[in-house]
Specification:
This protein has 266 residues and is an alpha/beta fold. It contains 7 helices and 8 strands. The longest helix has 22 residues. The chain binds NADP nicotinamide-adenine-dinucleotide phosphate. The site of NADP nicotinamide-adenine-dinucleotide phosphate has 28 residues, from α1.
């Protein structure tokens, strides 16, 4: 991974932090995105010296203005992107809105992936890889186009499942839009991992996998030569796996793309 520039969101905890560490160990220049300066400093100290380098940019990814500023700073500072890992995500116990007036789960888990990726498309190197961390929680979910954030009947898991389905629909639609190019995009489920991701929902169910085990598939997608040309797939434990039926629906994916573009002002 020498001479590769990687951008990883959700990089100060859980599987994102491990992803940053391992990519830097493999020699890449890794730019993590964090929202809390103290956690950023602690993460840099914890990762320590690596053959590659670890740097951080700060952004709260629930804010579209902050995502735009992040993309601008990234472009002016680094100029090129080889691997983008959209990883930041959370589960929220109650309906709440972002500074942009959008339900938090949909905004953070889906729109941040959508907006950051679109803003960085021109910065991608010809063989760049875009990796979207989804979840098997997408199974049984649908996209509620009349009420994305389930304002009328909010449930944490319903909103979360829908946002993770959106990750896969976005990946599939992006892969179609990138046809003819060598840039790839894939989604994945990391497994049920022992991390803090339910903290914002006041829950603390922790999975059996270590963060290292959970981060394995996304690190593999970012680095492995054998997936260099693979695009538009969903992986579980490094295996190309079938996601839910609706995740392959092209009209749903197009509609989600168009609506998301309007919501983020693209
Ligand atoms: N854990 C699981 O079992 C599991 C299963 C399936 C899918 N996933 C997915 O895996 C991804 C990573 O989750 P994880 O398990 O590693 O959880 P985690 O330990 O809670 O890490 C989530 C990361 O996202 C960051 N984040 C949250 N809100 C943010 C915001 N508004 N702006 C910027 N960054 C924000 C957090 O920042 P702070 O460090 O500042 O809190 C943290 O670094 C998520 O997309 C999640 O949906 C996890």
């Amino acid at each position: 991974m020498h001479n590769k520039i990687c951008l990883v969101t959700g990089a100060t905890d859980g599987i994102g932090k491990i992803t940053v560490r391992e990519l830097a160990k493999a020699g890449a220049t890794v730019i993590g995105v964090g929202r809390d300066p103290a956690k950023i400093q602690a993460t840099i100290a914890e990762i320590g010296k690596t053959p590659g380098s670890v740097e951080f940019l700060t952004a709260d990814l629930s804010s579209q203005a902050q995502i735009r500023a992040l993309a601008e700073i990234f472009q002016s500072k680094y100029g090129r992107l080889d691997v983008l890992v959209n990883n930041a995500g959370a589960l929220f116990n109650a309906y709440r809105e972002t500074v942009d007036g959008i339900e938090m789960t949909f905004a953070l888990n889906h729109l941040s992936y959508f907006l950051l990726t679109n803003l960085l498309l021109n910065t991608l190197s010809p063989t760049a890889r875009i990796i979207n961390v989804a979840s098997n929680a997408h199974e049984g979910s649908t996209i509620n186009f009349d009420d994305f954030g389930y304002k009328r009947s909010y449930s944490a898991w319903t909103a979360y499942g829908a946002s993770k389905l959106a990750n896969i629909l976005f990946t599939n639609e992006l892969a179609r839009r990138l046809q003819g190019k060598k840039v790839t995009t894939n989604a994945l489920h990391p497994g049920f991992v022992n991390t803090n991701f339910q903290r914002a929902a006041g829950l603390n169910m922790r999975g059996p996998l270590s963060p290292e085990e959970g981060a394995d598939t996304q690190i593999w997608l970012a680095t492995a030569p054998e997936v260099e040309k693979i695009t538009g797939k969903y992986f579980v434990r490094r295996r190309d796996t079938r996601s839910s039926e609706i995740s392959y629906d092209k009209s749903v994916a197009r509609r989600l793309w168009d609506t998301s573009a309007k919501m983020v002002g693209l």
